[in-house]
């Protein structure tokens, strides 16, 4: 697929560039998020899940900022197989019996920085919203600032 840059950049040399089909995923709301097929990215996502599990409670903005700084490379992106950090968060809350309110600050920060990720499906064709409902973790749904897609 060939993409053209914004009209203001068309006079620059090499203003046209190629994108692999899976590099950008355009959802119906025209939000874009990176697709990462890299297995090292999946490992980083697992590390982020382990960090959430080990922390158990994010009660300060400092803890959230530290998490986002440490795992910023995976918090705004998705992978067809692994899904998103939001999928991981729902799974960690469910399987480790964490209290949703204890991860509220983190969940809100993740959704605020990349709200389009709530509509991304994982390999099982489930969005984080569907997973939260299925796992009876509907409190996690309240952390989205607007109506879910």
Automatic annotation (TrEMBL):
GO terms for molecular function: peptidase activity. Keywords: Hydrolase, Protease. GO terms for biological process: proteolysis. This is Intracellular serine protease.
């Amino acid at each position: 697929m060939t993409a053209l840059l914004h009209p203001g950049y068309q006079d620059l040399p090499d203003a046209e560039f190629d994108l692999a089909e899976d590099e950008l995923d355009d959802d119906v709301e025209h939000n874009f998020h990176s697709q990462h097929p890299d297995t090292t990215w999946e490992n980083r996502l697992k590390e982020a899940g382990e960090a959430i599990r080990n922390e158990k409670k994010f009660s300060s903005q400092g803890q959230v900022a530290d998490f986002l700084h440490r795992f910023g490379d995976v918090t705004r992106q998705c992978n067809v197989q692994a899904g998103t950090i939001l999928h991981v968060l729902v799974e960690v809350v469910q399987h480790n019996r964490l209290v949703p309110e204890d991860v509220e600050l983190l969940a809100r920060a993740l959704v605020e920085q990349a709200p389009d990720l709530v509509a991304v499906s994982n390999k099982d064709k489930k969005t984080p919203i569907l997973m939260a409902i299925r796992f009876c973790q509907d409190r996690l749904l309240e952390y989205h600032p607007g109506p879910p897609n």
